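User: I would dearly like some help making sense of a protein record. I have put the entry right below:
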Amino acid sequence: MSVVELTTFTVRAERTPEMLAARAGMLEAFRRDRRGFRSARLVRVAENTWLDFVEWDDDAAWDESKAKGANQPEIAAFFGTIDALVSSERGVRYDDEPGRVRTIAYGPAPSQVGELYLPGGDGPFPVVVLLHGGYRDAGSDRRQMTALADDLVAHGYAVWNVGYRQVGEEGAGRPGTFEDVAAAVDAVADLDPVLDVTRVVAIGHSAGGGLATWAAARTELPEGAPGADPRVPLAGAFTHGDPLDFEAADGHLDVLDPAEQAWKVIRDGVDRRFAGLTVYELPPVDVNAVLAERYDLAREYRFTRTSLWDMEIRKASAPDKYLPNVVRPGSLAKFGEGADFVRVSDQKHWLDPSRYGTVIERVHLDHRNQRALFYGLAEFGELRAGTGQPLFHVEHSVTGTEDRPINRWRIVFLTETPDPALTELFAAMAEQEYLPEFIEVYLREEVGLEPRRRTPAR
């Protein structure tokens, strides 16, 4: 079953020819840039109201497209002709022929669903069950595994990329999450006759790695235990980024303790009660208001919340591109993919920009809440962070509405006592009249518009 996006929008009558002309370029950009795009049909339901019927291979493909927003000039040109977004919904198509990618529910909960990917040929195919990571938190989902799914399919494997209930969802935890994984694996027996149920393995990333290992050991569980007596025993499991012996790993992993002060500040909100830390939150930025007041563009452009989050995703993976005045060119190294990874780069010191120091950051992209979290680490493997300034954690987030997105930024320095020099620096940043550098880079590199700054009136 494919996934259908139903988007209703309005266009003034005088702009209708412009919208229709731009649509051809937009569809070509979708075919070029959007994984899983199948087709689109445009329906006029009233003089100024239109319904776009867009079909995708799977749930994750639509989510990925939505996160990209107007990242291509042709897409931005089409979006620029729209006056207002009325609604955007998704559904599952039930009347299509079985395809090479299908979204299938294995249970009644929203997270009890997966995508079945089939390679070319008649089978029988060996099967890989993918289990995503993400702190077992409901803000993470199976989208982070789609690139691996595509690669495995290209090598002749069938792939069952599944979700499961996580913290924040009813029934999650023990035994619910484990029961979901067991049910998802056992569902392989009924998904498609071309699957070879005697050759099934699981691959898990981070939190999913522990679940994959548990799933492979279900044959050893005592009778009556959650997940015991598997219908589809696994031939093996592969785990990436998840220690199986936490006692042995203690001292080798520099992961923040959830009870640690700085973690609470960055996760739960800025709280001045945490003595010693230097905490600062910049005023929220109404991006489109600043863009209209302070810039000249070759054509009209407005950010959506989706496109602003797309910028944050790109910036997290490529800080050298989006922060050229902060990150030393050529210094970036990235370990891992998806929503959780580590990045290492040489960055200018906050209080002495003439000096660079190595900064190691554990990155978590919370797609559901549109928050990018950067946790400063003292070390990662053999790498060591610079000691010229305290470690710091940063949060970039997007709030507001779809047509009026707000950019937010806050930082926590792990100082022994609050540093007034840092506070003064951030207070000066708060007085800036232009958009942050990374937003200007996004406009220039992804939207194709040169943001020309106007001289502020004095």
Notes: The radius of gyration is 24 Å. The domain at 101-242 is CATH 3.40.50.1820 (Rossmann fold). Residues 249-260, 265-273 have pLDDT under 50 and may be disordered. Residues 143 and 404 are 26 Å apart (CA to CA).
